[in-house]
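> forwarded from #structure-qc
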């Protein structure tokens, strides 16, 4: 066979042998299309399909799965072959025939199976895979909290923008009224300047609120996985309304902590890491057993009575004698890893308690703030502003009294929006702390 024909044939053989194990290394991820009206459920669904960090976590799981396959694989046997010729002096009296030999060895595969080393390596890799899967679930838990927080940040920014526009319209109306009054001599230029300044400040607030709304939407779109430019969308303003989630009716910190211990994936991930460390320590101890290779070789040089080496079959065992080193370093590292993972599990469980207690305390305090706002404070601020505005238009109240009542009304409403957002953030933090949906 000519060389030009041999090269393509070798390529075909290589593809047949290696090709089935080749997977596409990367692929373009589908472009995220955010709908014009985005609900919180839509945002969470988009994040679960397209979120960058979840895609990375899925790749890490695939990598850990590959480690399991590699750890459980049986070592390929090694084959050897040789061709040789012995040289004798001219007076040897006979011709020297060529010799050849072939051999095969198991690459310690039999010993690794019988001694349990391969099984222990597989256990280590499987525990690491379980930990990677739990870490992916935990990443989704913490990142979904960010999605909810950014969504409600956008909702708050939208509500603040609508309120700022309402205030700007009222400020413009007051300024127009005072222009008429000033021309008629009813007020001084000082009062006119103050109302104009209030109008301009209201316009400034509208622009600032509009910018804050866009920034929060851009941040949310990035977290949802949008890659090629920003497409504007609307959020559901009704989401900001106050309500007590069904899952928090009558809940206590003790019941929530028990629920978190049963549901938190970071606890299960830490437990899986503990299993990995224990299996790794067992493997390190098992590796003190020497590697033993089994081999077979056949050779001959010449044939018949003149054969220098008659047909010869050789069975062999090869081993590494553990005379100077018996895995002391690996065993010590394994023991330290076990202790570290035990401490890590205890730390995670303590962190769960701290997360629940902190989130539940925040939920209780922010709930009281919103209830106080809706119970009396909002109504009093609005009522005061309306009465003073009516008195001012009739000339019974000063401009300073009106502007002070307006500032109090504005500050109270903005604080209300912040309290609502803080309340829902506390609810979402509590959901993340117990790894459960509390709003349904």
């Amino acid at each position: 066979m000519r060389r030009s024909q041999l090269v393509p044939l070798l390529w075909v053989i290589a593809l047949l042998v290696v090709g089935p194990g080749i997977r596409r290394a990367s692929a373009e991820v589908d472009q995220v299309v955010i709908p014009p009206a985005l609900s919180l459920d839509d945002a969470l669904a988009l994040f679960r399909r397209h979120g960058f960090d979840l895609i990375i976590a899925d790749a890490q799981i695939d990598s850990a799965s590959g480690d399991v396959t590699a750890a459980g694989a049986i070592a390929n046997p090694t084959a050897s072959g040789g061709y040789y010729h012995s040289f004798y002096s001219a007076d040897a009296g006979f011709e020297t025939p060529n010799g050849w030999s072939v051999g095969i060895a198991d690459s310690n595969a039999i010993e690794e199976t019988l001694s349990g080393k391969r099984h222990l390596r597989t256990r280590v890799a499987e525990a690491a895979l379980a930990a990677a899967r739990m870490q992916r679930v935990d990443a989704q838990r913490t990142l979904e909290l960010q999605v909810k927080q950014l969504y409600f940040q956008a909702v708050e920014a939208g509500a603040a923008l609508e309120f700022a526009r309402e205030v700007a319209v009222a400020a413009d109306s007051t300024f127009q009224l005072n222009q008429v009054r000033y021309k008629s001599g009813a007020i001084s230029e000082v009062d006119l300047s103050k109302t104009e300044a209030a109008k301009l400040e209201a316009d400034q607030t509208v622009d600032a609120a509009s910018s804050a709304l866009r920034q929060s939407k851009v941040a949310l779109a990035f977290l949802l996985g949008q890659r090629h430019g920003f497409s504007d969308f609307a959020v559901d303003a009704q989401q900001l309304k106050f309500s007590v989630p069904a899952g928090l009716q009558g809940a206590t910190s003790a019941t929530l902590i028990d629920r978190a211990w049963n549901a938190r994936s970071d606890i299960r991930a830490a437990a899986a890491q503990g299993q990995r460390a224990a299996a790794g320590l067992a493997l390190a101890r098992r590796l003190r057993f020497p590697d033993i290779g089994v081999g077979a070789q056949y050779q001959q040089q010449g044939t018949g009575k003149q054969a220098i080496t008659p047909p010869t079959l050789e069975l062999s065992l090869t081993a590494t004698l553990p005379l100077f080193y018996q895995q002391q370093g690996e065993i010590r590292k394994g023991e330290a890893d076990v202790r570290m993972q035990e401490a890590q599990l205890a730390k995670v469980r303590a962190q769960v308690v701290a997360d629940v207690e902190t989130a539940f305390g925040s939920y209780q305090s922010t709930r009281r703030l919103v209830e106080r706002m809706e119970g009396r404070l909002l109504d009093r601020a609005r009522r005061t502003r309306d009465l003073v505005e009516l008195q001012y238009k009739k000339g019974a109240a000063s401009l300073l009294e009106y502007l002070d009542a307006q500032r109090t009304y504005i500050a109270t409403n903005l604080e209300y929006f912040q309290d609502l957002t803080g309340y829902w953030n506390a609810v979402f933090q509590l959901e993340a702390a117990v790894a459960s949906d509390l709003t349904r």
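QC bot note: Residues 1-28 have pLDDT under 50 and may be disordered. The first strand starts at residue 37 and ends at 38.
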